[in-house]
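To make the argument concrete, we let one protein speak, a sequence paired with a row of structure tokens, as a model reads it:
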Amino acid sequence: MRNALENAINVFADAHKCDACSIFLYDDRTRTATLKAARGYPMFGKASIILKQGEGLVGRVIAERRPIYTEMAKSMHGYVRFHNFPDDDLQTFLGIPLLRGRERIGAILLQRRTGVPFTEDEISAARLRADELAETLRNVGALMSAETSVAQNAVPGKLAVTEELRLKGAVASSGWAMAPIKGFSKSSASELLSGNVAEYPEAQRSLDEAITIVEKRLETITHSLDEKLPEAASAIFESAVMLLRDEMYEGKIRKLAESGTPLTRAIAQVSSEYITFFQNSPQDYIREKAHDVEDLALRLLESATLQSPEINSDTAPHIIVAEKLFPSDTLRIAQGNVKGIVLVAGGGTAHVTLLVRSLKIPMMIVPERDLLRLNAEEMMVMDCANSTVIVHPSDATRKRFAERVAEEAREHITRGGAQRETFTSDGARITLMANINILADVDSALEANAEGIGLYRTEFPFIMRQNLPGETEQQKIYSRVLERMTGRPITFRTLDAGGDKVIPYLFKTREENPALGLRSIRFSLKYPSIFDQQLRAILRAMQAAERSDVSIMFPMVSSVEEFEAARERVNSCLESIQNEIGDRPVIAPKIGTMIETPATLAIVGKLAREADFLSIGTNDFVQYILAADRTNPEVNHVYIPHHPAVLHGLKLILDASMKTGTPVSVCGEMGRDPRYIPFLIGIGLRSISLEPAQIVSAQRLISRLSTTHCADHANKLLGMDYIADIETEIDEFQESVFG
């Protein structure tokens, strides 16, 4: 914690050429600010300063939530001189509050020798840097307060918390959890890769025995995962298995061991060479391999020294607090009753993030290593909706989250009784389909009585691997989807790579603006061999299942030529499959396109005539129309789905589909938002594809809507030019219908 403060002090002092610099952290409970870090004060660490809110210039900065600048501090109202920290020759004073919204975090004080002013540009730069610092220091201050409040009774090396402690972090996987914590750390074998070990433990097994044990354990984990996550099961450890039997890797270890080097040292030495080599690569996907080597090396070391790398399955619910995780760690942890994961040292690999999302485990990254010192079984709440981790929650907090558990349980029961068909209050039929990421999501879709799969995202088998999945492997996955969704239509979206779904081994050159780069259908058309493999896998799965209710949809089409070129690839693949199956007629899918770019608005009439169906991907549609990256927090305020341009664009698409009789659906977040569903129904939409968990609530909402009222509401919104007016109308409509 103190390292973070010291680093911040050094950054500010150097960047702004300060003769003295200090950070005060504010405690809202005591309404005091305490000097926590300083540079340029010889007495810091021997004496302290604690200010009441409003006391001294720093106290004023915090109380008034505004910067104070003066070139003669003594002349300012409220100035206080501290004898242990004299500033007679440091009269140039710049105090900046550290705020998160209206919440007071503290203040940073920059001082220069008398007569050396700060320019306006320097003050502006310091304020920007202070804004960036405030989020980090919020957690530091909370942890320091917790540590100080229990310092007298703390167990050495442990961080005991006696009052509710709230920390902010970054959400890697959404959800929430409440459970005792359980620490996770690598075994002592991890130290053997550091290169600074004087003595290595003696191996109790041969290299061949260790390799056999590791192979069997990886195979066991893979089989246990196959039902839950088949898209990743065969891919997650494939690089480890390949390396395990690689002649160079295994051969080097064997040669060192045969020359007299202890086996454990040989494993560590060779593995460290590989890790360093991969880490120094300029390519992201190559650097990722360093984690695979480290994971494999630890398994070999543990097996060779009779240590067990397995984590005992824990039936009691718990939240894992870890420094870092590898994919194999995540899979082993998931065998137990893990409710959530908190990482404290920069997070896990991209594979870990994808895994926990697919396994539906909430995960947050809170870069405060002191969380590793929390007492075992300390209660924790993860509230990903508010990006908050709560340590030692109060009775009131526990009660609130317990009620949330009960509410979700009731929702779960209700979900099973959802109606198979959805109607508005005046009898209009609305089709509710499911968006699916992985096979495991199919169960949720069936439980929610989804009428089919409106969007099956096919990226996961590509993302989880370090090389392309083959046609046969893809076909197996698609076949399992078809088998599980018998009697319900399925739409497969072809590979939507690029943008925020970069597949490292495919995108070896970093693009300046990937959202506008080689992505989606552009990528597939540039690499027809990859495209054809996927199309053939889908088509062959269709023929094997004898399913005629399967559709193929192309992402991010921006011209009629792109759609026709992609459709021609499908026809070509159908011809090749016809040659394989002989006289039996080949089953052809329906072919559709997503509407996601402004370019399609001018040609939507032609696309509606050419395609069998249209699907509006509102996430990218809004992003591209407003030129606002939906993943960038700096422009969140600009990403407004109810912007007039977005609403008129949606109306244009619905009008075009109605003229041609082409089915159209929505598969983005607007389709699950109760603020926008009335508008969508009002402009004529009759099919929505959304996350399975949202289907029941959407059905309830739709059953209370009248198409007539929705149409009136939509017309009002379309007649407005100002976002504020639109927001008012949306609020008033919500109030009139739902109270």
Summary: The two ends are 47 Å apart (CA to CA). The domain at 165-184+312-401 is CATH 3.50.30.10 (Glucose Oxidase; domain 1).
